[in-house]
Specification:
single chain, mainly alpha, 2 domains, 63% helix, elongated
Length: 263
C-alpha cells in the first residue's frame, strides 16, 4: 500500500531541451483536455517514462489534467518527449479518443521536427518572440509543406542574425539579404575567417557563410533536384535546410552568449 507521500502530486523540474511549445500545447489539449486520458491514466502512462512520476498517484490536490500532462512531458529528456507523444498518437488505450485527424496532424509534426538537442538548449536562452515563432512555423511546415519549410528555415536564420545584431546595439542594415546579415553577424561575433586562424578553422567558418548563402538561394532552385534525387527529394531537402539552419543558429547563439558573458 502506497504511503501518503506517494499520493501527493508535485511539479517536476522542467528540462532545458524541449519540443516546440506549440507541439506540447497541442498534445496537452488533445490528450489531457476534454478528451483522452483520465487523471489516473496520465500518472500510469508517464510512470513508465519517469521513476519520479511512478512514485506519485492521482488524488486530491492535483492541478488540472493538462497542467500535469505538460509538466510531465517537459520533465522528460527530449528524445523521450517525442517517444511518449508518438506512443499516444498510436493505439494507446484512452478514456475518450482524441479526434483522429488532429492526432494524425500531430504525429506528422512530431516525425517532421528535427530536434538537435544543442539547438533546443540554445533557444532556451532566447526570450524573443519573433525567433520562437520562426522556429515553430518551421516545425509546422516540415510535415507537409517542404517549400514553406525552406522559406521558414531562411526566416529562422535571419531572425537569429537580427537577434544577435540587435544585442550589441547594432541595428541590422541588411534585412531581407540573408548572406549579408550572416556576414555582419559573424563579424560582430568574431566568427569571420582570418588569416591568422588555423586552416581548418578558416575552412569551417567560410563554409558556414556558404551554408547561409545556400539556405538563402535554395528556394529559387528548389525544383531542380527533384528529378535527379528522387520523388521525395523535396522533403529531404527541406529537412536538410532545417537542420543546416538549426546548426548555424545554435553556433551563432552560443557564440553570442560567450561574447556577452566575457564582457
Amino acid at each position: 500500500m502506497a504511503n501518503n507521500s506517494d499520493c501527493i502530486y508535485r511539479p517536476l523540474p522542467r528540462v532545458k531541451d524541449l519540443l516546440p511549445s506549440a507541439i506540447i500545447k497541442t498534445a496537452s489539449r488533445l490528450f489531457a483536455g476534454d478528451t483522452s486520458l483520465s487523471g489516473p491514466q496520465i500518472f500510469d502512462f508517464f510512470g513508465r517514462y519517469s521513476d519520479e512520476v511512478g512514485k506519485m498517484r492521482y488524488g486530491s490536490g492535483a492541478p488540472s489534467r493538462w497542467q500535469m500532462f505538460a509538466n510531465f512531458i517537459e520533465s522528460l529528456p527530449i528524445d523521450q518527449q517525442r517517444a511518449a507523444l508518438l506512443e499516444l498518437c498510436g493505439e494507446y488505450p484512452m478514456r475518450t479518443p482524441a479526434p483522429t485527424e488532429e492526432v494524425e496532424k500531430l504525429r506528422d509534426r512530431l516525425r517532421g521536427v528535427p530536434v538537435p538537442a544543442s539547438f533546443g538548449k540554445a533557444m532556451a536562452n532566447i526570450d524573443t518572440t519573433y525567433v520562437t515563432k520562426a522556429w515553430e512555423k518551421l516545425t509546422q511546415r516540415l510535415a507537409g509543406d517542404p517549400e514553406g519549410a525552406i522559406t521558414s528555415a531562411r526566416t529562422l536564420l535571419e531572425s537569429v542574425c537580427i537577434y544577435v545584431l540587435d544585442g550589441p546595439g547594432k541595428r541590422p542594415d541588411h534585412k531581407g539579404d540573408l548572406p549579408a546579415s550572416y556576414k555582419a553577424t559573424a563579424e560582430a561575433l568574431g566568427l569571420d575567417p582570418r588569416k591568422e586562424d588555423d586552416a581548418a578553422i578558416r575552412q569551417i567558418l567560410g563554409s558556414c557563410a556558404g551554408l547561409a548563402q545556400g539556405v538563402a538561394t535554395l528556394r529559387n532552385q528548389f525544383g531542380d533536384a527533384h528529378g535527379r534525387l528522387g520523388e521525395d527529394a523535396q522533403r529531404r531537402i527541406a529537412h536538410l535546410a532545417a537542420n543546416v539552419s538549426g546548426t548555424l543558429c545554435t553556433f551563432l547563439i552560443e557564440s553570442f552568449e560567450a561574447v556577452r558573458s566575457n564582457r
